[in-house]
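name: query_chain
kind: protein
chains: 1
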Amino acid sequence: MADFEELLRGLAGNAFQRTRIANGWAGVPFTTKAELVADFAAHPPYGSNLTFPRARYTHFCQTSGTTGTPLAILDTPESWDWMLGNWQRIYRESGVLPGDAIYFAFSFGPFLGFWTAFEAAAKYGALCIPGGGLSSIARLRAMSAHRPRVLCCTPTYALHLAEVARKEGIEARVEKIIVAGEPGGSIPSVRERISAAWGGAEVLDHYGMTEVGPVAFQKDGALHIIEESYFAEVIDPVTLAPQPDGELGELVLTPLGRTAWPLLRYRTGDLVRRRGCALEGGILGRVDDMIVVRGVNIYPSAVDAVVCTVPGIAEYRVNVWKRSELTELSVEIESADAAAAAHLERALTEAFSLRIPVTLVEELPRFELKARRWRQG
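structure:
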């Protein structure tokens, strides 16, 4: 409990957290994204979850806003360095070596993961090559010229880069690909597809959130929480009761070193199956992403896994709509193989015991950051 006691002492001046710690750790309620959104609305632009005076804060980041209003979050140098230390642990566990060249194939917007990964790699001793502001072709040419050992990007963008390289005839190779931002990196079929597209490169997943920082690294096929940095719990998302090891539940995190912008028992909304410090299969879905179709529970990550088993699909999109108050799904795919739609339709039927129509279209959007493949309509 020493870590908790130190954390709670450090939060004595935080208005947002003061009432949460009044009764000790056992009485601390969960923190939700909705509470943070309400606090930011009541105390713009940075909310009241600030432990120190505004002048102590030097780093700005912002959530993606994919699940609601973007939150602008501040960090002090001490909290920022704590997160960089977590990323250096991730690099060590991933087999990245000081002196390795790492290519960061993303735009440097106000997203925590980009900046912490980049700065941590520099402190770790790696050669950091930024790809911000460049087109996919320009990034591939830079990779061809500088020959990095490691590529960092989202799973979707790793596949897109490989597709562009093939079309443009650009020779770009890496030994390792660290992916984040989407659950695909922990899905074996997705990892295998990325690895094959990059000539057998090792694909490693990473998990983190802007709200809490870098959380986990991949090892032996599972995501491992950095236990010295996070107190992790798994709960039933309905009853809020603790879930035993091996049972599906919602991940709850308390960062132990980000005292400048702390969160106590933060409900991540991510579904996991935990055994010890390992999350089997990584992030299995989102509590609020599950869709019930004719009595069958379907998560986007499960659909993604099925799509990746069908060769030749360049991109896909899922349409969700209501018919007589019942939820229905259909899938659009982009593929040069005219038979791919029929193959995917059979695979979806086998996976979910449902007939989900699949149609072939000429072109679908590409994504550099988090893919938005599910469309309500």
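note: The chain has a mean pLDDT of 88.
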